[in-house]
Amino acid sequence: MKKFYLFLFIALAWTISASAQVPAFPGADGYGRYTTGGRGGEVYYVTSLEDTDTPGTLRYGVTHLSKVTILFKVSGTIQLNSSLNIRGSNITIAGQSAPGDGICLAGYPVSVSGSNVIVRYMRFRMGDWSLSADEADGADAFGGRFCNNVIIDHCSISWCTDECASFYANYNFTMQWCIISESLRMSLHSKGPHGYGAIWGGIGASYLHNLLIHHDSRTPRFGTGNLGTPSDHMTDMRNNVIYNWSGNGCYGAEGMTVNMINNYYKPGPATTTGSKNRFIGIDDATSSDGTTAIWGKFYIDGNYNSKYPDVNTDNWDGVVVNTSSLIGGNATKADVKSNTEQGETPLLHQHTAQGCFLPVLNYAGCSHRRDAIDTRLTTECRNGTATYKGESANKGGIIDKLEDLMPEDAGSDWSPWPELKSETAPVDTDADGMPDEWETQNGLDPKNPEDRNTRNEEGYTMLEVYLNSLVADITEAQYQDAEIVGKPGEPYAPVTTDVTVSWSMSSGKVGESATVSKEGIVTSSEYSLGSEINRKSTRLAYGKVITTFQPTIEYKSPEPTSALYFDFDLADGVTFRPTEISIMALSYGTSGGYFDLAWVDSNGEETILGTGMHGGSDKEDESLATTKIDLNDLVVPTSTGKCQLIVYVYKLSPTKELGLADIKIGGHLGYTAGINETEVETNNREKSIYNILGQPLSAPQKGFNIINGEKRIIR
Q: Which region ranges are annotated with the description Disordered (predicted)?
């Protein structure tokens, strides 16, 4: 089981709060701006381009480690043997550290499921040579859902069989300065034509200064992933360059809140007549029987079409609203239009639409060492051309498979992945991520690995200062002539406590089930004991029953055998992110004895929430016996399925007791499936209607309803 620490001691509270205000790196913008990644953690070097689950490989680092900065001592293409999931949380992947031309991941999809993740200067060029037909459906070159605090910066993403870069249903997310290119239209997908760019969206999600080029559709498609209610989703799309889109182009956004500001649209040889001057086609979210519609709100302004100026004066001339039933008639543009920018947009650099065109072409993607693919793509966008095309669409820039990129004079050993040359990595004696020469020049000790986490006056660690220096010229140049807009401070999406799972401990019996504040959320619950701790007795304190526990061995540090395990299983389609923990603990027969609290998510990843705590005395005020931990400012992964709180007991004599009561886990709910989002219920047939508590209702209420056995959200 992986374990990492988010909350160590109360004395560190200031440090945690202060670091939350330090941007992920200079130039980090938008809702993911304050992601911390591996800041203050360990260093892991990738030394091999092999794709095995052994130390030294990228796969080992992203699946086994957390609170870590991943660096590279090699450059080249890693041909994946299977899908790669970045499971760890509190991770920075610093592709700019690779000596030479950098890193490319090829062959299989790469996804992010951890939280608090920074990925910079990487290439994700999947292709269709390794996938089976079954694997190709849903295969995104790079994507992620149901994550918190993620920023993707200066990555190059291409050659998918589904979407190239689908990041949606996340909290506090930014994708910036990426090149998203050449989805494969008629490859292995079971639906046939499927050359799509991206699905974007989230509860506080920014998409800034990206290039979307040569896609058959979805440039992007906005979507919620059925996380929460559609109106929760605040998506901000600015300063993107969209070139040579085909099909529908940009569409969707069912019930969402969206800003589309200062984007640059350049039709290309594949751009169809119907969408040549379209910015977006807006859809509605409907109830399961199709009788009601939810429309979102859109602020669309400052966007520019290079060939069709009729939509530049009034961007809403480039908006299509699909007809769908609203109470009182069909939706009009007035129904979905916002006249003001929406959401509390975090600080970001903003160009005009025409002002972003050249910076994006010059600096987007893995641009510190551009490969031949990105060089060709940016040249084609600049010139309004396309070099390759596939047979199915027969449109310039829209390819079906990797072989469509093969030059006529290519040899039998041709590969679509350009050679990425590796150079000798700089000497790093203490393996702290900073070369000896750089440490000496900056007054650090090349033999002291701990100085990597020394902070400068801006709040960055010295390791971050070094990594940021490798691309400082790009960061400075890309934002010339940009203005800073938005609101400084914390990210957009506050995480509310929607449900509480509680064990009163009043039964005195091991295996007691929890009380849940909302029905339909938890399917089963219990608590159990490690093999070296026993239930001792029950006592009374503060008018409550306290169940006491006694170890059989006095451990000097936390051990799994001397712990209590509080487990609950979530209903299908429900996600849970812990936001607060409360526990009453009393020591009997001693003033000693300690306990730690840990959270284990559905991936089996353990997060230490608090350490070195001890029980109070029943002679003191009740508040002194209750430990509360607010997790809102910390990044704890979201779970689906199984959840677990662990109470480790140590430094407690076998003759002494620790009493526990009122164990409460507050959490934020999300929904991944099974929720129909409706605004007004208009069906006149007789209904059976209940609220979330199972109480019968005469009519639907705002919020969560169960109508004829189906879950509905009424707004």
A: 409-455
